[in-house]
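>> Question from a student workshop board

For tomorrow's exercise we were told to take the sequence and the ligand below, predict the bound structure, and bring the output to class. My setup keeps failing. Could a helper post the expected result so I can at least see what it should look like? The ligand is adenosine-5'-triphosphate.
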Amino acid sequence: MPRIPRIGRDRNDDEGQPERPEDRDVRDAAQASPPSIFHDEPASAEPTVVHPAASAPAEPEDDLGWEEPATAAPEPAQAEAPKREPIVAPGFAVMGAGKEADAPKRVSVVNEPPVDPTDEYAWHTGLVRPHGMPDAVEFIDVHKAFGRNKILRGLNMGLPEGKISMILGPSGTGKSVCIKHMVGLLYPDQGDVLVHGESVPNMPDDDLFEMRKKFGVLFQDGALFGSMNVFDNVAFPLRQHTDKAEEEIVATVSSRLDEVGLGFAGDKFPNELSGGMRKRAGFARALVLDPDIVLFDEPDSGLDPVRTALLGELIQEIHEEVMQQRQESGGPLPAFTLITHDIMTARRVAEHISVLWKGRIVESGPAEELFNSDNAFVRQFLSGESQGPLGME
Ligand SMILES: Nc1ncnc2c1ncn2[C@@H]1O[C@H](COP(=O)(O)OP(=O)(O)OP(=O)(O)O)[C@@H](O)[C@H]1O
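>> Workshop helper replied:
Here is what the output should look like for this input. Compare the format with yours to find the bug.
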């Protein structure tokens, strides 16, 4: 049985923490990593591998595999007029069926200024707008600190099944920390994280190991193993976590590589690929075990606007495809969750948005409703304005 990393369960500070999985080499990762979780380690940091083709690496061909974008212009957000929900006074009431539904319900006037502008949670209505689907992942009053640095401070958040959702929020607010809680690489100091209704922090190691098979994770830069070619990188979870015959592995990997437009690149090494190609290879690897939940940590970082738009389209296409398969097979509908700072990507791709700030949700709900929110923070963040509650602090 592979060793399950239990990061941050006993200690909260950086000093003296157990060795992080990110720091392990490929062999350790093979033993310790969940099936499709590959840590946020740029290929360039991997040990140098001399490969015939790598001795004089060709300039990465950025355009390989990409077709011309149909258009980079954003789709109209919705066909029908957005449904506006009443806004509640900051810090008081929550509508819908969220965990805060027991809070006193004091519905106030739309655009009411914050009760106390010096209150750092003045804009956190915590409004949970109904999305009509069960949650694949739920954070229930989660608190997490590293030493004195309190990152999650009472986080209540749901990520719906069958949707592409996004967690948006300022830098350093704890978005990546959320991903690590979902897959059991970090544990809450307080509160609970549920995946398909099961508590991750309370899972025995064997169950945790199985639970991780539900996830595919695409970390920034694809986090490919630099010592393996693209084919072997994508085949890695299948070889580690299934008993599939090599013939079946070849068929699965080839089909996943074709899907992401890298059918021709199986024998290339990560250092021969452009950033966009590495991300697509990482995406193919994240999908190879048919996960129920796919997590993308800033998939658009380092990509130009056109490649970003194309990656967004690819995510939508594959989500739709998996939706159809699951509707036919009856399995859980796929929950794709992206962490991004790119508002254009959010406008184009997101069906559900959670805005995270200071360790709590400001508002969450269907994307078109969030883009039409009357909350000044949400409005500022989703329009990228310099004026508003969010400053440089
Ligand atoms: N293992 C750890 N030990 C100590 N501090 C940590 C650890 N992991 C994360 N942090 C801290 O938690 C905070 C939130 O980090 P996180 O990476 O989740 O932010 P983020 O919202 O994803 O930011 P960005 O958008 O810039 O990527 C940061 O201050 C980070 O330094």
